[in-house]
């Protein structure tokens, strides 16, 4: 294809190029692996967002057999990029984002015709998936950072604790979950905020995407800011059981960030994307913050502090 310029990608196997057209630009998304999720499902979720008046990239052209899509270009201004250089009014952006999240969570239609003219039904985010994701911590981080003779005992105990935590979740899996809802995947487009990277969406726990936004491993925020975002979200949730929500928010933040440590280690050593290693120290700090003085994480705190003393106190 002519007039293509490679642009920075994400943690997936996809590659992104900006295409210069006569009157507008577009983005060409290539996916050699897992075309179903990275192209077909990605566009299906975008269609659901657009149908519900949530800004997402529109499809211009699909060449599924050749492994690419051409979609709307949202430019380069992620909210992350803006907030990194913005000294004031960060909370205003987060309030706008929370409103978008509430809109996403109100989506009722769980299926749509994809560009192959077949129904795509969003799957459930069941506990099996949640547990397997958290176990990526063992598969990659533990494997790289723990002596062989200690791994088996640690992994067995870790998996037992993770399973118990997942069974302690209180809310139903009945809400549209983006699953990677943080400010790197939110774009400022003509004063609006658009949502990208939505191919992993599932029907899951109401607390998951808020935990992803507030405990974002790529962008450090103070405890005060985290609490303000959390409380702003709660203000718009009149019928929510706040105790159950807080319980699930904390558990899902921990499980998600353990998963992220595993994934970022995998990206560094399997995909040679060493840049992701720089986010791991802050991810540990987030985990430490959530499990500290929290009785339901007592077993996990003891296990991690015994084996990763410099990370968990």
**What's the main sheet like?**
5 strands, antiparallel
Structural class: alpha+beta
CATH topology: Aminoglycoside 3'-phosphotransferase, Chain: A, domain 2
Number of strands: 11
Sum this structure up briefly.
With 313 residues, the chain is of the alpha+beta class. It has 11 helices and 11 strands. Helix 3 (90-105) crosses helix 8 (223-235) and helix 5 (136-145) crosses helix 9.
Explain what the structure shows.
The radius of gyration is 20 Å and the shape is globular. It has a five-stranded antiparallel sheet, with helices on one face. It has a two-stranded antiparallel ribbon with strand order 6-7. Strands 8-11 form a two-stranded antiparallel sheet. The mean pLDDT is 94. The N and C termini lie far apart (53 Å). It has a single domain (76-307), classed as Aminoglycoside 3'-phosphotransferase, Chain: A, domain 2 (Alpha-Beta Complex). It is built from eleven helices and eleven strands. The protein has 313 residues and is α+β, with helices and mostly antiparallel strands. The longest helix has 28 residues, at 242-269.
């Amino acid at each position: 294809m002519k007039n293509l310029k490679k642009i920075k990608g994400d943690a997936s196997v996809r590659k992104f190029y900006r295409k210069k057209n006569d009157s507008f630009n577009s983005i060409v998304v290539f996916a050699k692996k897992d075309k179903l999720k990275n192209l077909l499902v990605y566009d299906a979720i975008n269609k659901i967002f657009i149908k519900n008046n949530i800004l997402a990239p529109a499809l211009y052209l699909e060449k599924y057999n050749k492994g690419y899509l051409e979609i709307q270009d949202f430019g380069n201004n992620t909210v992350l990029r803006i907030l990194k250089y913005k000294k004031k009014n960060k909370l205003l952006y987060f309030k706008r984002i929370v409103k978008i999240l509430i809109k996403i969570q109100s989506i009722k239609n769980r299926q749509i015709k994809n560009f192959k003219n077949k129904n795509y039904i969003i799957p459930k985010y069941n506990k099996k998936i949640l547990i397997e994701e958290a176990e990526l911590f063992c598969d990659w981080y533990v494997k790289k950072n723990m002596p062989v003779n200690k791994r088996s005992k640690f992994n067995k105990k870790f998996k037992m604790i993770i399973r118990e935590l997942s069974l302690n979740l209180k809310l139903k899996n009945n809400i549209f979950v983006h699953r990677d809802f943080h400010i790197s995947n939110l774009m400022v487009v003509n004063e609006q905020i658009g949502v990208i990277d939505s191919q992993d969406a599932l029907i899951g726990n109401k607390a998951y995407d808020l935990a992803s936004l507030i405990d974002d491993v790529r962008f450090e925020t103070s405890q005060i800011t985290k609490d303000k975002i959390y409380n702003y979200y709660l203000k718009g949730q009149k019928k929510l059981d706040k105790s159950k929500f807080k319980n699930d928010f904390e558990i899902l933040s921990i499980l998600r960030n353990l998963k992220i440590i595993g994934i970022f280690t995998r990206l560094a050593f399997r995909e040679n994307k060493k840049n992701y290693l720089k986010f791991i120290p802050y991810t540990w700090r987030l985990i430490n913050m959530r499990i500290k003085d929290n009785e339901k994480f007592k077993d996990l705190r003891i296990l991690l502090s015994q084996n990763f003393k410099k990370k968990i106190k």
